[in-house]
Amino acid sequence: MTARLYLKRRAVGVVVLAGIVMPSGAAPAGVKSDGAWDYTVKSDYTGDPQMVMARLRNQDGSALWISCTRRVGLDLETSTVSYAATVTAKRFLGSSEAKGRSTVYWFDENPPEVSNWIYRDRYGQLRDPEAIRGFVRKLVGSEKLVIELSNYRYEGMKSEFKLERDETRAVTERFSQDCGSLASKRT
User: Fold this and answer.
1) Residue 59 β-bridge partners
2) Looking at the domain assignment, is residue 17 inside a domain?
3) pLDDT digits (tens, 9 = 90+) for 136-180
4) Cα–Cα dist 111/91, whole Å
C-alpha cells in the first residue's frame, strides 16, 4: 500500500498516523507549511485512494480528526464511503451505547449544538454523514471550536481548538474534494 502524507509540522522524518508509517512531505496547495493541520491520503494496493484523514491537535493533547473511508462490498462490485468526525482525549471516556451520548459543541460564540456521538475508550465520534458535512462546513468560517465530551460518569471534558481560517478552508476544500473522488470511484 502506498500513502502520501501532507505534514506541516515536520520537514523530515517518519510519522505514525493511524497505524500507517509515512514519510513527511509537502503540504497540499493552499496550506501553509507551518500549519496546525496534518493531512493524509491512504491508497490501496492499486494506488487508488482508500482513506482521507485530516487532524488538528490542541494544547491539551486532544485531537480533532475528520475522515472518510471507502469500503468495498463483499460482492466486490459495490462500495460505500463512511465519514467520521472524531475527538481523541487524553483521559478515559468509556463506552457509550450504540445510539451514543449527547455531546455539545460550538463554533466561535455561536449557540451550542448537541448531537449524539459514539464513545469508545479515549474518543468520541460523530458518524452521521449529513451532520459531518455540516460540521466541516462550519469549520471553514470559524476561528474556534469547543467540544465538550463526557466520560462514563457524564462529567464534561472540554477541548478547545483554534482554527486559522485560510488554512482550515484549504484543508476542508481538499478533504471534500478527496472524499468526493472516493465516493465517485467505481470498483
Assistant:
1) none
2) no
3) 999 998 999 999 999 999 999 999 999 999 999 999 999 999 998
4) 26
CATH classification at residue 148: 2.60.40
Closest CA to 164 of 144, 147, 146: 144
Establish if 138 belongs to a structural domain: yes
- The amino acid at residue 51 is M
As a whole-number percent, the residues of the chain with pLDDT over 90 amount to: 57
Is 80 exceeded by the pLDDT of residue 11? no
> Domain count of the chain?
1
Over residues 33-45, the pLDDT tens digits come to 446 899 999 988 8
Domain residue limits at 150: 49-184
Is residue 84 a part of any domain in this protein? yes
